[in-house]
Amino acid sequence: MKWWMPVLVLSLLVSTHNVQAEEEDMDLMDDLNISDLDESEEEFLRLLEENNLNKDLQRENEIAAKMAAELSALQNNVLNPVVEIDPCEKIHCGAGRVCQLDGMEAKCVCIPECPEETDLRRRVCTNKNETWPSDCSVYQQRCLCDTKADGCLAPLNTHLHIDYYGECHEQKTCSEEDMKDFPRRMRDWLFNVMRDLAERDELTEHYMQMELEAETNMTRRWSNAAVWKWCDLDGDTDRSVSRHELFPIRAPLVSLEHCIAPFLESCDANKDHRITLIEWGACLGLEADDLNERCDDIQKSVPQLLG
């Protein structure tokens, strides 16, 4: 073996760790006279060069893969930015309360301040026969008393609720004759509300089917309307309607229909403060056999309240 072979090998090994050694190695290769090499020495150098080329290729592939990964991550950040979700979007606080953040924790607190109302039509009458400026003020007061916070005017206001819309006034007495005719008028009113919502395309698909059936089948006219409204009022789907759940149908009508309050009271036949579908149908003058309870189908969609 030529005298320079060990020097060349040592130089090439060192060159993998030292850039300056690599440059010196290249200078050495340039000084060599390839014509002085025998075949075994030429093969050795060929293999050595091939090995270095493979290493260079591998290194280039690694750099390319790293750059591709970094580019992909950058594109993902641009196309799919991280969106911070407001914790309050996942919490429902109910009437008289609003959601506030305590650090990163969402909490329901009493409404700090209600809008000042000057329109007399915004006033409401409570179950204590007191006129309040607005529904907001009633719900706020109930919350303040429920949480024993400053601003609670009386502990019993924990149970304060709206009896009807408008200023409190002396209710006209519902006569016996008026009460006899009221179920018929109530049946007609429920059907007309259902029809009006259907014409405005404000009913869900299942409600629309019930309304269409009521239009084409007179035997289903009143019963479908009764079932629709009873299922609509049963917000907690416990197969009964509570006094609280009657609010959407009671509050708007008390000032207009002096018989609505005693009528709804009469629907609770067993006085358990719950109205079943059979009780609802009975006070409307409908037979139990005509009441086809379809709340499961109806409540798969979001129901509509009164129009």
Descriptive account of the structure:
The protein is mainly alpha-helical and 307 residues long. It has helices at 4-15, 19-31, 39-79, 135-146, 176-199, 205-216, 221-233, 247-250, 260-267, 277-283, 295-298; strands at 97-102, 105-110, 124-126, 131-132, 162-165, 241-242, 274-275. The strands form three sheets. Strands 4-3-5 form a three-stranded antiparallel β-sheet. It has a two-stranded antiparallel sheet with strand order 1-2. A two-stranded antiparallel sheet has the order 6-7. Strand 1 and strand 2 (105-110) form a beta hairpin. The model is unreliable at 1-34 and 302-307 (pLDDT under 50).
Q: What are its keywords?
A:
307 residues, mainly alpha, 7 strands, disulfide bond, disordered N terminus, three-stranded antiparallel sheet, two-stranded antiparallel ribbon, single chain, SPARC isoform X2, disordered C terminus
Please give a quick description of this structure:
This is SPARC isoform X2. The protein is mainly alpha-helical and 307 residues long. The chain has 11 helices and 7 strands.
| Element-level helix/strand string | HHHEEEEHEHHHEHHEHH
Name the helicity range: 40-55%
Q: What fraction of residues sit in β-strands? A: 5-15%
The end-to-end distance, rounded to whole angstroms, is 104 Å
Mean pLDDT: 79
| Global outline | elongated
Which blocks of ≥5 consecutive residues have pLDDT under 50? 1-34, 302-307
